[in-house]
Amino acid sequence: AGSGAGADMRTEISTAAAFVTRLLRAAGGVGEEQLRCFRECLQEAMREHYKHHWFPLVPSKGSGYRCIRINHKMDPLIGKAAGMIGLSHERLFQLLPSELTLWVDPFEVSYRIGEDGSICVLYESPQAGGKAAKQLESRTSCKEEWRIGRSSPSKSYNMMTVSS
Fold first, then answer.
1. Where's the Anti-proliferative protein domain (predicted)?
2. Can you name the residues that pair with 70 across neighbouring β-strands?
C-alpha cells in the first residue's frame, strides 16, 4: 500500500530541506558544494524518517513525529545531514536560529522562529482545504522575520486547528 508514499511527500520534503539550506547559506561560511550535499542528505534523512509516518488522508496525524526542531538541542535529522559535510553541532548552533520549528505535513510546510514567533507557511497545496485564505495574509510579513531573527509575539495559534 505504501509504494507511492515516497513520491507524495517529495515537494514537502524538498521545500523543507531547501528552507534549512537557505538559512545556512544566509549565515555564510558554508560552500555551495557543501550546501548542495547538505540539502540532499537532509532530504534523504527526512524521506527515511517519514516513510511510515505520512498520512495524506489525515495530514495532522504524525505531525509531531515529522516536526523538525532546534531548541537548545539540535534536531537529529539536521545534525545527521550536517555531519555528512563536516559541520559540528556547535557550528550549526552558530549558523541556525536557536529556536526553530519546522512542520512538514502532507500539503503544507510551515515554520516558526522563536517560541512566540508567528507561523509562516512555506508551501501549501490547494488540497489542504479551506484554511488557505487565512494564512496567506501573514505570508508577506513573515519573509523578513527570519533575517531579523526575532519576531513579535503573535496569537496565530488558531492555524494549528484542522479544518473539517
1. 96-115
2. 100
159 or 129, greater pLDDT:
129
What was the pLDDT predicted at 68? 97
Nearest in space to 138 (alpha carbons), one of 119, 114, 152, 113 = 119
If DSSP codes are grouped into helix, strand and coil, which group holds residue 74?
coil
CA dist., res. 103 & res. 31, Å (int): 27
Other C-beta atoms within 10 Å of 103: how many?
23
Task: For the chain, give every domain's residue range.
Answer: 9-124
pLDDT of residue 58: 94
Give the model's pLDDT for residue 148: 41
End-to-end Cα, the chain, rounded Å: 25
Q: Which CATH architecture describes the domain 9-124?
A: Alpha-Beta Complex (3.90)
Instruction: Give the separation between CA 51 and CA 14, rounded to whole angstroms.
Output: 15
124 φ, ψ (degrees, to nearest 5): -145, 130
- Mean pLDDT along residues 45-68: 95
Residue 90 backbone dihedrals phi, psi, to 5 degrees = -60, -45
Q: Name 57's Cβ contacts closer than 8 Å, sequence gap at least 6.
A: none
Predicted confidence at residue 72, as pLDDT, reads 86
Single-letter residue type at 156: S
The strand ranges marked E within the chain are: 68-71, 99-105, 108-113, 120-124
Cell of 140: 508577506
